[in-house]
Write a structure and sequence with these properties.
Layout: E1 3-8, E2 11-13, E3 17-22, E4 25-30, E5 37-45, E6 49-59, H1 85-102, E7 115-116, E8 126-132, E9 135-139, E10 146-148, H2 157-172, E11 178-184, E12 189-195, H3 202-211, E13 217-226, E14 229-237, E15 240-245, E16 248-253, H4 265-272, E17 279-283, H5 291-297, E18 300-305, H6 308-320, E19 326-330, H7 333-339, E20 347-350, H8 359-368, E21 372-377, H9 380-392, E22 396-404, E23 413-419
Parallel strand pairs: 4-6, 7-22, 12-13, 17-18, 17-20, 18-19, 20-21
Antiparallel strand pairs: 1-5, 2-3, 3-4, 5-6, 8-9, 8-11, 9-10, 11-12, 13-14, 15-16, 21-23, 22-23
Helix pairs in contact: 1-9, 7-8
Length: 420
């Protein structure tokens, strides 16, 4: 394998790679740290860039540390465990600022205070395990090769305690592709999804639930996978659990979305939710994580999502929390924006998927011009693109804050505040 000698790592870029140059080409190096001198083995080479992995560190970065996970250099789940946590946050802040400047053409000198995870490990309440030939684990970085694991340090300890049962389950279901776990730290119970290419016998799955899995697994469903989408075939047992955040209680179904890092739940609500607005529209509301607190502090809230199960949960949660000034609609963001075109909107609350806003959605927003916008993002690239268009459309960008939702990984979440 070709080795590149003495690469100087300038910085860490989005994706978790160290950036260097070699003979006029950019080199993206796995497991590098800022300001290091190292050699790297080439993984693949394309016309204008090379992807490589660290072979030997010649001059070590002061931010480098030994990763605590024994699977780290094999499993593809984490990219930054070898870097000090404070430095990880600084790296993500720098990437976010650079994205806003380069992609959004926005002049931003500094971010607001970052919203940091309370724990560096053990923060995830949801897991998506890959399964191959009866073995359970995660795919190696950039491949579909399974790395078998007995624990994942990012997971809540209760999920790790469940892994031996999941390993046994993986051996008993033929052609099992994935196992998804949702855990409620408040109720101390689990919901599972088993993903198979063809339907698995419901009575057999019922017996496995009773004989292999602990009683804390209150529900299990059989699903097929179509691209990135899961299609439910059937469900056994209870299809939902409950989460508690501050004084809010939420029903969360197996097919609904809820914030994954439980250590950040309260800080997210304290930092993101605003009050004293007359009319609020929220897009991509999920099970109502932000919706319910928004309805408590504001006069009237209209929320929507394309996930029918999440909307049912959100409607239930409004009743559960005695909120009668919020309505939920099962419809697309575009449909909601179009339906309320021409109306006065005091606050538009956005929490879109990784692709950000569509061209039509952005056009409707700029036509209707809500007085204020809060934009929660899970992708700095699409955030920068969308914010740039909003600012050129008449909005003032008041602040942007990093949300360090996923320590040890390259993922960057953030929240932006805009006003007319």
């Amino acid at each position: 394998m070709k080795v590149l000698p003495e690469l100087s790592i300038k910085k860490i870029v989005y994706g978790g790679y160290g950036l260097a140059e070699y003979k006029g080409k950019k080199v993206f190096v796995r497991y590098a740290a800022p300001m290091e001198l190292l050699s790297a083995e080439v993984i693949k080479e394309k016309g204008d860039h090379i992807e490589a992995t660290t072979k030997e560190v010649i001059i070590k970065s002061p931010s480098r540390k030994d990763p605590p996970c024994r699977y780290y250099y094999y499993c593809g789940g984490c990219q930054l465990q070898h870097i000090d946590t404070d430095k990880q946050v600084k790296i993500k802040e720098d990437i976010l600022i650079e994205s806003l400047r380069r992609i959004g053409n926005l002049e931003i000198s500094a971010l607001g205070e970052s919203i940091r995870s309370k724990q560096d490990f053990g923060y995830r309440t949801r897991a998506q395990f890959k399964v191959s030939n009866g073995s359970l684990g995660f795919f190696a970085w950039g491949t579909h090769e399974l790395v078998k694991i007995d624990q994942c340090l990012l997971m809540h300890p209760a999920i790790n305690d469940l892994i031996p049962s999941l390993q046994e389950l993986s051996k008993k279901i033929p052609h099992l592709q994935e196992l998804h776990v949702l855990y409620s730290p408040n109720e101390d119970e689990f919901l599972l999804k088993v993903i198979t290419p063809t339907i698995y016998d419901a009575e057999k799955l019922r017996k496995l639930k009773e004989n292999v899995l602990p009683k804390k697994v209150v529900g299990i469903g059989n699903y097929s996978k179509l691209g990135d989408h899961l299609l439910k075939r059937y469900h056994i047992g209870r299809g939902f659990t409950f989460m508690q955040v501050k004084n809010y209680r939420y029903r969360v179904s197996n097919d609904s979305f809820f914030q994954i890092n439980f250590t950040l739940w309260e800080d997210l609500l304290n930092s993101v939710v605003v009050r004293d607005k007359r009319r609020v529209i929220e897009l991509h509301c999920g099970a109502g994580f932000f919706s319910i607190p928004l309805s408590e502090g504001n006069h009237f809230v209209i929320s929507s999502d394309t996930n029918a199960t999440a909307i049912k949960d959100a409607q239930y949660n409004a009743k559960l929390n005695s909120r009668d000034n919020i309505v939920f609609f099962h419809e697309s963001a575009h449909q909601t924006l179009k339906k309320h075109a021409g109306e006065t909107i005091d606050l538009l609350f956005l929490d879109p998927p990784r692709g950000g806003l569509t061209t039509d959605e952005l056009s409707l927003i700029l036509q209707n011009k809500p007085k204020e916008i809060i934009y929660v993002s899970c992708n700095p690239t699409t955030l920068a693109r969308d914010l740039g268009k909003m600012v050129r459309g008449g909005y003032s960008l008041k602040s942007v804050r990093l949300i360090d939702n996923f320590p040890q990984t390259y993922h960057i979440e953030s929240v932006a505040y805009l006003e007319l």
